[in-house]
Amino acid sequence: MFLDYLYAAGFAIAGFIFLLLALWVGALVQPKDPSGRKLTTYECGEIPVGQPWSQFNIRFYVFALSFVIFDIETIFLVPWAVVFKDVGVVGYVEMAVFVSVLLLGLAYAWRKGALKWAL
Amino acid sequence: MGVTVSQYLAVSALLFAIGVAGVLLRRNMLVVLMSVELMLNAANLAFVTFARMLGGVEGQVIVLFVMAVAAAEVAVGLAIVLVVFRTGETTNVEDVSSMKW
Amino acid sequence: MNEYALGQGLWEMGFAAAVPFTLVALSAMAVLLADLWLLPSQKRALPWAALAGVLLSAASVAFLWNEEATGFGGAIRLDRFSAFFAMVFLLGTGLVVLLSSAYARREGVERGEYYALLLFGTSGAMLMASAVELVTFFLGLEILSVSLYVLSGFFRQRPASAEAAAKYFILGAFASAFLLYGIALFYGASGSTTYAALRESFGSAAFPYSHGLLALAASGLLLIGLAFKLGAVPFHMWVPDTYEGAPTTITAYMSVVSKAAAAAAFIRVFGASLSSLQQDTSAVLWVLAVVTMTLGNVVAIAQTNIKRMLAYSSIAHAGYLLVALTAAGEAGYSSVLFYVLAYVFMTLGAFGVVSLVRKGEGGADAGAEALDISHYSGLAGRHGLLAAAMAVFMVSLSGIPPTAGFFAKFYVFSAAVRAGEVGLAIIGVLNSLVSVYFYMRIVFLMYMKEETVPVRGSRSRAGWVALAACVLGTLLLGVLPSSFARLATESIASIF
Fold first, then answer.
1. Cα separation of C45 and C57, whole Å?
2. Smallest Cβ distance to B64: which of A58, A71, A75?
3. Nearest residue of A to residue C9 by CA position?
4. Which CATH number fits domain B5-88: 3.30.470.10, 3.20.20.30, 1.10.287.3510, 3.30.70.270?
5. What is the complex's ipTM, to 2 decimals?
């Protein structure tokens, strides 16, 4: 019991040391030239425009919602998959019904143009 | 030594109370929404605690359902906040009061 | 699985119990999908598709009328009680769809989502009435509520509608959270969420004291959630604003279906399962009933907007329902069922008239909804039939014979007297007297006053059919109440 905790603690400490080590080695070998654009926020290689508190495109919201739908789907799919063999045909059909309802939602979102970026 | 059932329930009740206070006291609709979510999650914690106490999984299954419901609710809620913002340019609960008595 | 035929197997698993609301949900999806491929000119078919779904489900309920089945591991139950409420919900939905067919087009919200959400909401309400397990009941409640949140904000461009949705949503989600916490406590106290387990745990007085406390706390939380849905004081704050801002047909739907669904769930949980807590719950219900009736009726007097007046009237009617729930027992609960049925006809009728009356030519906003009470002045001279229908509903809502409202109140108050709640019955009757004032004011305006603002009635044939059905139902229940009362009693007997 106590040994288990020790293992876990050992891993945690080793991970932490590795992190510090990697940063330290990096700091040791990298050339230092903190100037201009290098100090700006990193945004996938783009030059940042404006403040981070800008208004977001409404499209993000629609995408986030579609994501949530399928995210929730997985929390039902995973427990089902674990006991797949035990629940038999009935369980399979029930899950098929569930997934097809969600597919219907996807079809709706697709047809309404929620999956397109263009406004 | 371990955390007892009543301690879990105390945390759950505390979370619920924080949620209630948030809904009643905060004026930003988004914060109110988050407070409601906190209340739902307090209930979830209670479900899981009871499931553990009773030695069953029923409570854990219920939590999955509650999460799905909460997701649906928050999606609709955000959409409503958005509509309110578009028609009235505000997310403050007190500003949304064109109708009285 | 292979030992018997599939149909037989499904029957024994209790899938029959799910048929009525599954049909409604399926038709909702069909409407939603059909809308995506329909041309704008074909959108007129949508209400008829929705109506077909309602009729299909009603046919299935009629077919299963004498059956009893418990399905999905004891989560839902089909019996006379759920069949009765299914019929009430389907009747309400059908009438609302008919009223909407003209209203939605005129207001520019004739879209698949509108009808699909109506049907989804109905399936949720049916699930609430047939659930015999707390989480299933919660799911039904949320399906109904989420549909209504969206529907009440369906006029996206209008601030009032957005405000209605926002208020309804915030308070509704708040109440649902209370309800859910109550369910969690019940689960902890009895180890299961089925109503049968609740009855077993709390049916006898032998349960441990600590569990009793837990059950009381849980009942309180559950009561908050249901009182909110019912629109009872002090959880009524959303009612006037939401009723005023939401599309009129949706207001009608909300006031009928969500109230009936809350009453159904209440009877199943508190009446049939937690009867041992009766003493404690009735004390709370007594207070709720008195303040709800009184506040609803008194504040309704001061209203100038007809939808708002009907909103306060619906609060008052929630109070009468609470009187019946306080009375409890088979007499009390069967009077709830009769009341709900009567309420469908008279309230849908009243809101139906409101949805059909519009401002006439000559004003800047001709064609807009005529929502001010003064717009009803002299309606009888111009639209005799519309005024006559409204008069019938007002008479019925105030509880004057020979209408449905009279017998609904009669059964409620006599159940209260029989249960020994004479004081409550007297307060109820006094409240009805107060309500006569503001209901009859409308009748007075329509028949005795001169027209101030020109109004005109919609010529929608579907709307007129719905109104005719409401008038007919109101009068039928008022003239031949006994057979419907027997139906209600039988339905209640099936759950005890």
1. 19
2. A75
3. A90
4. 1.10.287.3510
5. 0.93
